[in-house]
Amino acid sequence: MAAEEYRIEDGFYYTKEHMWVKVEDSDAVIGITDYGQHQLGDIVFVELPSVNQEVESGEKVVSIESVKAAIDLFSPLSGRIISVNEDLKEDPSLLNTDPYGEGWIYEMEISDTTELEDLMTSDDYRAYIQEIEAEEG
């Protein structure tokens, strides 16, 4: 697939590890991008973090297993986890079918908003995906 065929939400932030961040006041909802879920294939299991868990940017927070691989996801921001998507325990395929909606992973209270400056904008992420696609030929 070409980079422009992947769904990328404007107004969100992105990481090079294919996570998205939607900021709402001092909170952030976090999930995996359409490109990320597409690379993993059918997702069969998600290990969620704990509510009230304090995390640092770059800390492992989620494990995902798909038919292709098992990966760990690292928090793009520091803060306290205030909710997790319990629906993913019963239906991890929500990450495949609706990565920006019903497939959100967790919500956190941001402790350091300056960390947002280290993330990519939607335009930056589109360019990043194009680079990856070009390298893969």
Summarize the structure.
Residues 27-109 form the Lipoyl-binding domain. With 137 residues, the protein is α+β, with helices and mostly antiparallel strands.
Describe this entry's structure for a reader.
This is Glycine cleavage system H protein. The glycine cleavage system catalyzes the degradation of glycine. The H protein shuttles the methylamine group of glycine from the P protein to the T protein. Its cofactor is (R)-lipoate. This protein is α+β, with helices and mostly antiparallel strands. The protein has one domain (12-136): RNA polymerase II/Efflux pump adaptor protein, barrel-sandwich hybrid domain (OB fold (Dihydrolipoamide Acetyltransferase, E2P)). The protein is 22% helix and 32% strand. The protein has a 6-stranded antiparallel sheet with strand order 1-2-3-9-8-5. The chain has a 3-stranded antiparallel sheet with strand order 4-6-7.
